[in-house]
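for the recovery benchmark. tokens below, seq after
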């Protein structure tokens, strides 16, 4: 059972990046998303409802009449799990469980369960465990009378855990410290990998976007890979990287990342910082949007909001907007790319049919080329290593073999030009 809480208008956030109010998230679209989240981990939704609310009740979030009427439905339909699509305090969760006599989980717990089920790599597993422990710690700290409700393991939908839970704050804090140290090592390892890519540099193109916008399908269509791509929220959690050759012959690295979602739990934003670091290092960011989704504008605002927060805390440099290409995906659902309105600098594609992919790769090519600089060098005939380096890392546009030296004109990225000119 999904119970989205319709936020009052006075709580609408201002989306400063676009200079205006954030697009209102449609209640029906929010409900559909919540149902999709539940279905993605195998829950069968037997009842769903949108409940308008003017204020949050400290005890139960919902009004007394709403709690009572829903309790009758829960009893009649033998509901085992009630999902409230909002953030519940420990007290609110406990009171609703007592009133409805069933398990109650909130949006944060549901997303954490999905991440726990999907994480496959060592890094992803560590990040999920860190997020789960941070969430469970808040339950312990704020509501000791709720200890008997803690579930076994790291999930929230499983059977009851130990009859007496003694995972106190000290034990959780010790585990959190160990996990953070392990994740720091993961970040160092990923940093070494990025340094290695810079030594044999290929531009990095990062795919970002709302969950289920079609990032993995687009990734597969561009690279010919077989990354898992399903019509499912959070089908991709662990970053994947593949090589791609652009129309100019230039090679780039394409990186598929985890999808964003509205009101992403704070625990996950912190825990998945290492994954988001791939975006901070990208030369170009492809913001993949679902052009056919009725809530596309609000989804865009959510993604930009997360990126803006990364800029604010120093994870992402202020120039990320100039490196972004907006990709309006799923054009096939609207009758083709010609039927998709796009603004300047954006491109419409269908990752399923392949329509628009050529225009996308050409646009990526142009963005990379715009950031390159033209330089002239005279290289001694005997210095084959420097000549080879220029051919490998740049685009040679002219070469004249003259007496005593080779005159070469080459286009290089600013960083590669500096590296070449600093070579002994």
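predicted aa per position
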């Amino acid at each position: 059972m999904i119970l989205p809480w319709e936020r009052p208008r006075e709580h609408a956030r201002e989306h400063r990046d676009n200079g205006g109010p954030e697009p209102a998230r449609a209640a029906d679209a929010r409900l559909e998303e919540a149902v999709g989240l539940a279905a993605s981990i195998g829950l069968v939704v037997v009842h769903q409802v949108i409940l308008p609310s003017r204020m949050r009740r400290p005890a139960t979030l919902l009004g007394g009449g709403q709690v009572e009427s829903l309790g009758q439905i829960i009893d009649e339909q033998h509901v085992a799990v009630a999902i409230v699509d909002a953030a519940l305090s420990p007290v609110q969760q406990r009171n609703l469980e007592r009133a409805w006599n069933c398990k109650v989980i909130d949006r944060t717990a549901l997303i954490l369960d999905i991440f726990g089920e999907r994480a496959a790599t060592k890094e992803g597993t560590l990040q999920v465990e860190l997020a789960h422990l941070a969430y469970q710690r808040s339950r312990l700290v704020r509501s000791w009378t709720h200890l008997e409700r803690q579930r076994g393991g790291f999930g929230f939908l499983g059977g009851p855990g130990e009859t007496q839970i003694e995972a106190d704050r000290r034990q959780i804090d010790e585990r959190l410290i160990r996990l953070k140290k392990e994740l720091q090592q993961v970040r160092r390892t990923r940093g070494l990998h990025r340094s290695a890519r810079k030594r044999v540099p290929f531009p990095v193109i990062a795919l970002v976007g709302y969950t289920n916008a079609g990032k993995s399908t687009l990734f597969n269509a561009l690279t010919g890979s077989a990354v898992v791509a399903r019509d499912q929220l959070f089908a991709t959690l662990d970053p994947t990287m593949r090589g791609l050759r652009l129309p100019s012959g230039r090679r780039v690295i394409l990186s598929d990342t985890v999808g964003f979602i509205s009101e992403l739990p704070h625990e996950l934003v912190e825990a998945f910082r290492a994954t988001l670091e791939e975006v901070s290092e990208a030369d170009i960011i492809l913001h993949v949007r679902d052009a056919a989704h009725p809530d596309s504008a609000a989804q865009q605002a959510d993604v930009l909001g997360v990126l803006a927060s990364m800029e604010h805390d120093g994870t992402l440099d202020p120039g990320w907007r100039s490196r972004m290409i907006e990709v309006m995906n799923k054009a096939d659902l609207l009758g083709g790319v010609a039927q998709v309105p796009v603004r300047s600098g954006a491109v419409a594609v269908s990752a399923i049919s392949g329509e628009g992919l050529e225009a996308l790769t050409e646009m990526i090519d142009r963005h990379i080329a715009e950031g390159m600089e033209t330089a002239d060098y005279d290289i001694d005939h005997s210095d084959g290593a420097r000549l080879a380096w220029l051919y490998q890392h740049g685009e040679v546009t002219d070469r004249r073999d003259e007496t005593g030296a080779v005159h070469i004109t080459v286009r290089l990225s600013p960083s590669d030009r500096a590296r070449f000119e600093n070579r002994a």
